[in-house]
Structure formats: structure tokens, C-alpha cells
Specification:
Blueprint: H1 3-11, H2 14-22, E1 28-29, H3 30-36, H4 41-53, E2 58-62, E3 65-69, H5 76-88, H6 93-105, H7 110-119, E4 122-124, E5 129-131
Antiparallel strand pairs: 1-3, 2-3, 4-5
Helix pairs in contact: 1-4, 2-4, 2-6
Length: 139
């Protein structure tokens, strides 16, 4: 597949757009992304792999934690795709809701968040209650 097709494929899924939007301006741990989107850890990881393979995200491993962020020096094509997401997808109602939820998720240390997810707990925030996925969040 050529780079343009790979990028457009990566951007064609609403959940991948949500994951990418969550990582636009801040590095995110997988446990934070699992908490944000109500999918299994395996599904989140597959979506992140598509985004990473397209060059829209980079990952780094720190012990058992995997963190994702947009590339600091993207190619022109990747830069254009990220600009498109910033200019258009960030106005999406679901992504706006995600931004609010991420502010609450950011208040929880990733270690504690992953522990709560493993134990099947609910994360209680001031205005939003989110049910943690029981699949874990460290891959």
C-alpha cells in the first residue's frame, strides 16, 4: 500500500480518529486510551498499530508501559494529515466529549489507572463516571 492510502485507511475509522485526537498534543499511555474509549485492550492496541504503521503515531516503551504520541518531526504528508485532523476532527461532538473526559483521566496516575482497570473498578471523577475495561492496560 502506498503511504497516502495507508494514511487515509488509518483515518477512516472513528475510533482511530478518537485515539489520534487524544494524542495530538500530549503523549498518552495505553491505559489512558483504554479508559477513554470503551473497547478492549486488544482492540485499542490493533487500532494504535494501524495509526503507528501509517506514521501518524509513534510509540515508546517504558518498562511495561507503552506511550503514544504524534511524531515530533512528521513528513509533509503526515503533517498534512495531522493538520486535517486538528482543523476538522477536533470539532466533532464525540471528540469534544473525549477532550473533557481526558482532562479527568489525566488526574489519575497511569499506574493507578491500570491497577483499577485490572481489578475491574470504576474510575469515579467529579462529573463523569467511566467503567474501566477489565482487559488490563499495559500492552
Amino acid at each position: 500500500m502506498n503511504p497516502f492510502t495507508t494514511i487515509t485507511h488509518a483515518l477512516s475509522d472513528p475510533n482511530r480518529l478518537r485515539l489520534l485526537a487524544a494524542c495530538l498534543d500530549q503523549e498518552r499511555c495505553v491505559c489512558q486510551l483504554v479508559e477513554l474509549i470503551d473497547l478492549s485492550n486488544a482492540s485499542i492496541s490493533k487500532h494504535l498499530a494501524v495509526l503507528r504503521n501509517a506514521g501518524l503515531l509513534e510509540s515508546r516503551k517504558e518498562g511495561r508501559w507503552v506511550h503514544y504520541q504524534t511524531p515530533p518531526t512528521p513528513t509533509p504528508l503526515i503533517g498534512d494529515a495531522l493538520t486535517l485532523v486538528r482543523q476538522h476532527a477536533l470539532g466533532d461532538e464525540q471528540i469534544q466529549t473525549d477532550i473533557v473526559k481526558l482532562k479527568q483521566i489525566d488526574q489519575i496516575e497511569p499506574f493507578d489507572l491500570a491497577r483499577m482497570q485490572r481489578e475491574g473498578c470504576c474510575v469515579q471523577t467529579d462529573s463523569v463516571k467511566t467503567t474501566s475495561n477489565t482487559q488490563g492496560a499495559t500492552t
